[in-house]
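Many introductory courses stop at the sequence. We go one step further.
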Amino acid sequence: MAARPAFKPWEIEDVIPNLEIDNANKDPYQVVFEDVHRAAYRNGSLANSVYAAKFQIGKFKYGEMVDFANKHFLSGNAVLYGANIDHETLKGYGSTHLDICQGGAVAPIKSPYKGGDWRRQAKSEWTHVLLAGEGAAGSDAKALATQAVLLTALGRSSNVPHDASVGAGLLSKSVGGSAAASAFQAVHADSSLAGIYIVAPVDHIEKAVRNAAQTIKNLKLSNLEAAKRRTVLDLLRASVHSAPQSLERTAQIFNSIDDRAILKAVEQVTASDVESAAKRIAAKFSVASYGAINNVPYADTL
């Protein structure tokens, strides 16, 4: 796709049904993930969805696609990363199959964090909320390490079944028994969002969101070393999953970050660093909600 795409008219027509299906089958997390970016970055470039709006599907023409590719599909914007493949084989594949146009990197448009709300009503007895604030830039290994320790202390969902650490974070104690919560982040080049994903029944969502916000605002880390050990374990365990690790590592390369640098930086994180990161997130919240949203508190009330 990235190597001199032709964008034949019939190829564009063939993907329209797929775009419509993708748009119609977003799960609640995907909805609030997109919407919290709209709330946080408003009219900035990071507010743009990765999904085409319904009214835009089928409207992009051949010439527009070619112009976009000529501007962005360049060697300076490209990373070829392989998992479970030796360097020479990967290099040979790139030389043979990826004939990318030569050109320098296109600098991303700055998208300052602003904060706010985005609410989307849907027929449901449940409410999905992403509560986030501004986090670490993707180019700052120490800040990313600090943020990783913070999210571990709050409590993150695990990709390992029956993980004993699930429910052991600060969030499980604050949001209440009928709500589920997990720390979350979305890292970009010069900014990131960090916070909490909450799912709760409509009559409990307000308490869960307010308690989660207070947990971030008043965070005090009592067992730093345990949180750091858990963070390192999570980072190492994530690295063995080829698909997500490939995406994560590619993003790090774009930001000139070595994944080992983040692991090493975890050792230098202090309790004060973590508490300062929490205060930065809490300085101005963004709230995206989906489902039964009537009881969801607005960001400026938190």
